[in-house]
Amino acid sequence: MTDSFALNPFVSIAADGTVTVTVNKSEMGQGVYTSLPMLVAEELGCALGAIRVEPAPVDPVYNHTIFPFQVTGGSTSVSSEWDRMRRAGADAREKLIAAAAAAWDVDRSGCRAEAGAVVHPAGERIGYGQLAQKAASMSVPADVPLKDPTAFTIVGMPTRRLDSPEKVDGRAVFGIDAVTPGALTSVIARPPVFGAKVKSFNAEKALAVPGVRDVVAAGSGVAVVAEAFWPANLGRRALEVEWDEGPLARLSTTTMREDYQSRARTPGVVARKAGDVEACFAKALKQVEAEYELPYLAHAPMEPLNCLVDLRDGECEIWTGTQFQTVDREAAARVAGVGAERVKIHTTFLGGGFGRRANPQSDFVVEAVQVAKAVGKPVKVIWTREDDIKGGYFRPMAYHRMRAALDSAGNLVAWRHTLVSQSIMKGSPFEALMMGDAIDETSVEGAKDLPYAIPNVLVDLHTTDVGVPVQWWRSVGHSHTAFAVETFMDEVAHEAGKDPYELRRALLESSPRHRGVLDLAAEKAGWGRPLSEGRGRGIAAHSSFGSFVATVAEASVGPDGKVRVHRVVCAIDCGMVVNPLTIEAQMEGAIVMGLSAALYGEITLKDGRVEQGNFTDYPILGIGEMPLVEVYIVSSKEAPSGVGEPGVPPVAPALSNAIFAATGKRIRSLPIRREELKKA
Amino acid sequence: MISIKVNGMEYQVETPRSTPLLWVLRDNLRLMGTKFGCGVARCGVCTVLVNGQAIRSCVTTVGSIVGKDVVTIEGLSPDGNHPVQRAWIEDDVPQCGYCHSGQIMAAAALLARIPRPTDADIDQAMAGNLCRCGTYQRIRRAIHRASETMEAKGGAQ
User: Fold this and answer.
1) Do A194 and A153 fall within a single domain?
2) Do residue A377 and residue A401 come from a single domain?
3) Which terminus of chain B is more exposed, N or C, with fewer CB under 10 A?
């Protein structure tokens, strides 16, 4: 490739006119290798075809615009880079114009940039490639003017992904595909129980497997290191490890559930208090009560976790699909015993992330560095699917107790919501930011910020400390709070004899964007219109990550209790749109992930052991269960907000409400159990 | 030493006959387009063609494919222009992309067998190919598109 000249940290241009956009967000399917270059191209004045994407190295210049580290998460990629990437494009454009004006010896005000070239007042053109070297040395004011959104020609246009060509012919390099000369492959025998320690191990049989090179203690387990994956895997099967299982060997989700349930019936730490809820209950004409429970969930990205490490001569080079570069680099440096500046991370494509690849402890990076250090050779650690499903860092189990009071006119006058869950922020780099007043905001998000106009509200939280590693899972706390809130709203509507859409609508009068998506989804779904025999329609609306989503599901239940989801209509308001195709894709994906969780997703523990281990017992939706999905995007001039996660929360309640409409049976526990829906 | 034929090329590999084809492709031949997802034939990301049939390479021993033709995503078309690959780009199918080598191989095998598949045919043939990103609706659409292109060109390959 020809030399490329850096005009700023985000834009480099080669002599052949190729524009390299350095993207500081990890591409895990959410389309940032398309949407962020679109922002640059809009201001730079070049075709998307001229752009190639380069993953950013770890450097403070690539830190998140809000958090002091490099991270892809919280559905913030577009909102946090919306301004900065456009500025990077505009800065490069101004430098190219300045370089051309200098070459022509004309005033720059008469020159303009378009389609990869600077145009002289008289019409002559010089391509960006020819100007790049000179432009790299030009300085321009920091506050270069940005286009008015009404003049956008790229941003907002339906744009196909730039990374599809390499994803359809096998070229795309994911972490598991990374290679470096002389690298060995390792599979790790992991603790059968969270927190268990290796008491002793016998490597003899593992070392007897042809191709196995070494067996070393690493982190919480024992690593079998081999010439390739298969001997490493056979070696692990042959390895004998004796574990000190520790205190969590008695853990079971059945007893945890009982504990959570009894806590939910006692007052917790107050997260939101308005009016006097108890006084209302005392004089309410009617009370509604329900309890909801949701299980631990594994992220289960299609690409199991992996990390390639080359630690030699005081340098540590890492190839992995990570969402959390700065944190991983610092953790790797500590383990490697080198300065952070000696650690180089190559961010590959991520074969799905959903939060799992932003681990506050950098678990999958740290252990790979430990193995490489112990072996003294480059090593790629590959997790098997069983390692992934049993490995923890789950979406926390949650228990919700809900109460509502209705007055004599059927108005919803009081709302009490008590939650029981583990904190995911405790021990993470976000702890200080997210855990004021002993409340983990992510445990109550979606509950505390209840959008409905109800005069008396009390939301309280019990934070448990059970030792199961938990983490953000696509839509974080909203993934369970929305199920409780939006299913309960449906129950309240039913008890009050009101239409669930109309009741929400009435209570959202002062939340126009929330009401906007509710109306749009209801209209497009044909709310209120008759459905074919046996089908029911359910609605839910939820705001998360700055965006608003409403979802209407149509479902039926067979005599065997099997749920069929026929159609899902979804409306989203995420502010100004960068790429409508990405938004549609993310909504479709969120609906599938939400349905997988609602219908199948469940991690349980017995005797401290995770009972699931592969897609056989932790199933996800297949193509045969894919409903017809329709996505509608609200046109908006608001600042861009989240897209990757907000589609998930309303899915499960929309489905549970549809099942109620179809069968009269309430779903208060996920996943939905076929036996409970079976006709007697 | 085992002789195998992959993407029209003969290879000699030094590995036990019981090694899964997936790991021979990835670790011996460095054909990294075929992915590992579950190891138990339940997710389909390792799908390749053996004598034109879509199979799960994670549970297929290398010994069992001796004398047969293996085609991986790298060998599906000379320059990524198989109608299925083009349809995948056109319909903006991939998200993370990890499962799509397997999806595309399964779709190519389907279209070779049933040139004009119905949605039900698609659902049946693609049932074992999971996608955590949830691209199923687009997969159906893209398979129909590929089918139309292939028919316009005079039938399946």
Assistant:
1) no
2) no
3) N
Q: Is there a domain that residue A388 lies in? A: no
Looking at the structure, do residues A668 and A633 belong to the same domain, yes or no? yes
| Domains identified in chain B and CATH numbers | 2-72 (3.10.20.30), 83-152 (1.10.150.120)
Chain A residue at shortest CA distance from B85: A168
Per-residue pLDDT at B156? 43
Helix or strand holding residue A443 (H, E):
helix A441-444
Listed residue (B101, B118, B107, B137) closest to A595, CA to CA? B137
Helix or strand holding residue A593 (H, E): helix A580-599
Q: What is the CATH number of the domain that holds A32?
A: 3.30.365.10
Interface with A, mutate which of B133, B144, B145 (most A CBs under 10 A): B133
List, for chain A, all residue ranges whose pLDDT scores fall below the cut of 50: none
Chain B hits for A173, Cβ within 8 Å? 32
**What does the pLDDT read at residue A219?**
85
Residues in Cβ contact with B120 at an 8 Å cutoff, skipping those fewer than 6 apart = none
Q: In this structure, is residue A387 part of a structural domain?
A: no
Can you give the length of chain B in residues? 157
Q: Which residues of A touch B1 (CB under 8 A)?
A: none
Which residues on chain B are in Cβ contact (under 8 Å) with A208? Answer: none
Pairing of strands A51-55, A19-23: parallel
How many domains, in total, are found in chain A? 3
In a domain, A326, yes or no: yes
Residues of chain A in contact with residue B37, where contact means CB-CB under 8 angstroms, are 302-304, 385
Question: Both tokens of residue A10?
Answer: 């985000």
Asked if pLDDT for residue B152 goes beyond 90, the answer is no
Instruction: Based on the fold, state whether residues A438 and A533 are members of the same structural domain.
Output: yes
State the DSSP H helix or E strand holding residue A310, giving kind and residue range, or none if neither: strand A306-312
Is the domain of A373 the same as that of A404?
no
- What distance in Å separates residue A179's CA from the closest CA in chain B? 9
**Which chain B residues in 5-44 lie under 8 Å from chain A, judged by CB atoms?**
15-16, 19-20, 23, 26-28, 30-40, 42-43
Same domain, A537 and A621: yes
Q: What is the ipTM of this complex?
A: 0.97
Is the confidence at residue B155, as pLDDT, over 60? no
Residue-wise pLDDT for A103-113, tens only, equals 999 999 999 99
- B157: confidence class by pLDDT, cuts 50, 70, 90: very low
- Host domain of residue A359: 175-246+305-382
State if pTM tops 0.90: yes
Mean pLDDT score, B142-154 = 92
A476 shares a domain with A599: yes
Number of Cβ pairs closer than 8 Å across A and B? 177
Q: Which residues of A38-77 are buried (b: 16+ CB within 10 A; e: fewer)?
A: bbbbbbbbbebebbbbebbbbeeebbbeebebbbbbbbbb
pLDDT at res. A436: 64
Q: Which of A227, A384, A620 sits opposite B132 (nearest CB)?
A: A620
Residue pLDDT, tens place only, B28-76: 999 999 999 999 999 999 999 999 999 999 999 999 999 999 999 999 9
Residue A389 lies in a domain: no
Cβ–Cβ gap A302/B96 under 8 Å:
yes
Residues 162-221 of A with CB under 8 A from B: 163-165, 167-174, 176-177, 179, 185, 210
Token duo for residue A312: 């030699």
- Please tell me the predicted confidence (pLDDT) of residue A680: 62
Any B CB within 8 A of A303 CB:
yes
| pLDDT the model gives residue A320 | 98
Rounded Cα gap, residues A22 and A11, in angstroms? 6
pLDDT at residue number A438: 77
Q: Residue B46: which of A229, A41, A582, A465 has the closest Cα?
A: A229
Q: Answer with the residue of higher pLDDT: B157 or A339.
A: A339
For every residue of A87-103, DSSP letters joined together read: HHHHHHHHHHHHHHHHH
- A487 and A418 inside one domain: yes
With CA atoms as reference, the chain A residue closest to B31 would be A170
Chain A from 376 to 415: CB within 8 A of any B CB: 382, 384-385
Domain final residue, candidates A151, A167, A183? A167
